[in-house]
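User: Quick sanity check before I run a bigger batch. Here is a single chain. Can you write out its predicted 3D structure?
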Amino acid sequence: MRIHPHRTSRSLRTGLAVATLVGACTLTVNAAAPAQAATCTGYVGLTFDDGPSSSTPALLDVLRQNGLRATMFNEGQYATATPTLVRAQAAAGMWVGNHTYTHPHLTQLSQSQVDSEISRTQQAISSAGGGTPRLFRPPYGETNATVRSVAAKYGLTQIIWDVDSQDWNGAGTDAIVQAAARLTGGQVILMHDWAANTRAAIPRIAQGLAARGLCAGMISPQTGRAVAPA
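Assistant: Done. Predicted structure follows.
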């Protein structure tokens, strides 16, 4: 698994910037348009890692405008710092998952450290109003028996991905659209909350899915596959 280069430089955003963005998000984000079940021959899971961030309001807006729902794998440290953005995710009809507290390489940690990363994030998201996550994505997709055991302890289903958009690796908008075009029913795509090229790709992703009879669904905690929203 390649290392996400953005991890080395990203820091928590300032309180002033968050306040401004939260205000904008609160004013503009409404619940996502419901999928047209009659036209859906299958469902795919759109996932966005590393939020909430300063990009979250714009991401939620473009998803809502295109009638898409997605799973947001949030980091606990950012959920703690910007709880209003977590609430905005939930209010926009998104599902909120656990992406650890500090985005470490879990396979290099002790069981107690893994437990802390996962449990603190469960609490942070719940306290922020995002509900109690049922889905968990290990950073970098790195996992082992210890990680899976701790996740299961908290009632979490581990979700990796079928298609990597490569947005973390500088993929352009066209490449991201092409990656989404490879999705088939039940599959999950990896994208990131902060990626501008991914936001730009969303209208075309929505068009491409609709043309193939696919709708954005929820990820089942039972199977880890994308299914019709409950």
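DSSP finds eight helices and ten strands in the chain.

User: Great, the batch can go ahead then.
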